[in-house]
Amino acid sequence: MISKHTILDNIKTLIYALIIAIIIRSLLIQPFYIPSSSMEPTLLVGDRLFVTKFTYGYSKHSFPFSPPILNSRIIFKEPKRGDVVVFKTPADNRTDYIKRLIGLPGDEIQFINSNLYINNNEILKSRHSNKTKIYCGNTIIESYIFEEKISNDKTHTSAYMKDFPYQNSDIFIVPEDHYFFLGDNRDCSKDSRFLSSVGYVHKDNLVGKAQFVFFSSDKSIGNFFAFWKWHKSLRFNRFFKKII
Q1: What is the pLDDT of residue 1?
Q2: CA-CA 20 to 30 A from 233: which of 72, 161, 177, 199?
Q3: Among the options 36, 37, 38, 233, which is catalytic?
């Protein structure tokens, strides 16, 4: 028969484990799952990645359920252009989005003839491959893959649909203490170009920086419990892949 003392010890152990897990998740590192194709080809649906919470300091959104325990960001560190960042969308301050940081406070962002300009300077891109099929939701689209040089020390991969439907935009002027984000899958991403749903993201909404993929599987082939399909569904080449 299990004694009352043993039961209490087990409950204490569970509470301690929960507290430690919350501390690690809130202050150090948190896993995230990629459910959409807006960051292809950098991130694929089914990727699981680690995000460091300490990279940009802490706000209420660093903690589970965003409790109102901090009025502003503390130990703040300025994010760098080109970082892949998880943030709470300004529309509801609850939903997690992951996008690439393009515009810093004061920057002017514009698309002209489907080319990205930052502060009137065109961001150079070179075609990395010919037409490639990538996902846009459940639809497969033909796209061109480019290498974009977002800064002197940062190059990343982006995808544009072959007919370049997003040609021109207004000038986006990033407000103070805010940031402008784009998905790498440029023609299949709800991001800062959509002011009513995402728009400019306040620094307090930053959750953390995406660092590396630790696990990846293609759910269209089979789920985790279909072990006889693991050799097809698991993307071993993406395990522990650094996110750039």
Answers
A1: 59
A2: 161
A3: 38
Q: Are 189 and 183 in contact (CB under 8 A)?
A: yes
Residue 35 sits at φ, ψ, to 5 deg, of: -100, -10
Q: How many other CB atoms sit within 10 Å of the CB of residue 139?
A: 9
User: How many whole angstroms separate alpha carbon 174 and alpha carbon 103?
Assistant: 7
Contacts of residue 209, Cβ cutoff 8 Å, sequence gap at least 6 = 51, 52, 55, 56, 79, 83, 84, 85, 86
Which tokens in the block code for residue 54? 């300490």
pLDDT score for 19: 83
User: Which tokens is 222 given?
Assistant: 């089979």
How many C-beta atoms surround the C-beta of residue 154 within 10 A?
15
Confidence of residue 129 (pLDDT cuts 50, 70, 90): confident
Q: Tokens in use for 132?
A: 């490639």
All domains of the chain, ordered by start, with CATH?
30-242 (2.10.109.10)
Active site residue 38: yes
The one catalytic residue among 53, 60, 88, 99: 99
- Strand locations in the chain (E): 29-33, 47-52, 84-88, 96-103, 108-112, 115-118, 121-122, 125-136, 139-151, 154-161, 172-173, 178-182, 201-202, 206-216, 241-242
**222: amino acid identity, one letter:** G
- Of 60, 47, 83, 67, nearest in space to 179 by CA: 83
The structure's pTM equals 0.91
